[in-house]
Design goal:
seven-stranded antiparallel beta sheet, alpha+beta, dioxygenase, 15 strands, globular, Jelly Rolls, about 30% strand, binds fe (ii) ion, binds 2-oxoglutaric acid, metal-binding, 8 helices, about 20% helix, about 290 residues
Length: about 290
């Protein structure tokens, strides 16, 4: 009998004990250096001289990383709020708490009956967004808290967040423990010639070892207490993932999403209602 909730190709340590070994067979790994916003070959997060590292001829535009967004007090306050609600099992060994409308992405339908707003504990952080120029007019209509436990092999497979409902900016507060957000090219055709040339040179160099799994991945460090905004190319051209091998201790992250322009323009009244409801900060988990 299956003890987990994984479906399709998704796995956790319970349904696939070899999971971490398989993920580690991955491709060429580069790192995003938040100090220079460039891709480098070595991991230089703790090294102040990262300009000296060999830069790689690709770019990952659309990442903003604000280190130390949370103080130690903020972290404890946020964890206190999150831990006052229970978790439900999700895919790939994760557990989640969701505050937002119920969505059927296939049918492009949303249902507001259960949603009473974002939780009270997130209000002070959403208020602080007005100090961040890149979050101008960011009105979140969903908060999803995820827990990644290494003993469950928790991860999230490479994916794009939905484009019909969710807007340009994905905002994640890294509440507990540090990890990497790993980006892989979603549609190689969307990249300029020099990036495509880089992808194919990497692929041919590594062909023997990698077979069909040929890919480049870029790891963006997500230190505990940081806030990351994913938009632009990082949202539209690159898929993102959290690999099980990068979850060293229990990770808790809170992702906030805004409505897309398309959705807002198609139904202004419903969009206004959703935003107003969210910002009552009166909600309970809907899962
Ligand atoms: O855990 C994270 O930082 C990312 C989660 C994510 O990509 C998602 O929920 O769509
Ligand atoms: Fe995502």
């Amino acid at each position: 009998m299956k003890l987990c909730t994984c479906k399709g190709i998704r796995t956790c340590s319970s349904c696939n004990p070899n999971k971490i070994k398989i993920e580690n067979q991955n491709c060429i790994v580069c790192y995003f250096c938040p100090k220079i916003s460039k891709i480098v070959k070595e991991n230089c997060i703790s090294d102040l001289k990262c300009e000296e590292f060999h830069k790689v001829n690709i770019e990952l535009n659309g990442i903003i990383l604000i280190e130390n967004f949370l103080t130690e007090d903020d972290k404890n306050y946020l964890l206190g709020g999150i831990c006052s609600n229970s978790w439900v099992d999700s895919q790939s060994g994760r557990r989640k708490q969701d505050f937002g409308p119920k969505v059927n992405f296939k049918k492009r339908k949303i249902n507001l009956t259960k949603f009473q707003g974002l939780p009270e504990y997130i209000e002070r952080f959403v208020n602080r967004f007005s100090d961040i120029p890149e979050l101008k007019d960011f009105n979140p209509v969903e908060l999803c808290n995820l827990e990644y436990n290494p003993t469950r092999g928790a991860s999230i497979d490479p994916h794009f967040d939905d484009f019909w409902l969710w807007g340009e900016r994905l905002v994640t507060i890294n509440v507990q423990s540090s990890t990497y957000l790993t980006f892989t090219p979603g549609f190689p055709d969307m990249f300029d010639e020099s990036s495509q040339a880089f992808f194919s040179s990497v692929c041919s160099e590594n062909h023997e070892n990698m077979g069909n799994n040929c890919a480049v991945s870029i790891k963006v460090p997500l230190p505990e207490g940081s806030l990351v905004i994913v938009s632009g190319d990082a949202r539209h051209k690159w898929m993102h993932a959290v690999s099980a091998a990068d979850v060293q201790s229990t990770r808790i992250a809170s992702t906030l999403r805004e409505l897309s322009m398309e959705f807002t323009e198609n139904d202004r009244e419903l969009s206004r209602k959703l935003i107003d409801l969210s910002l009552t900060f009166n909600g309970q988990p809907v899962n």
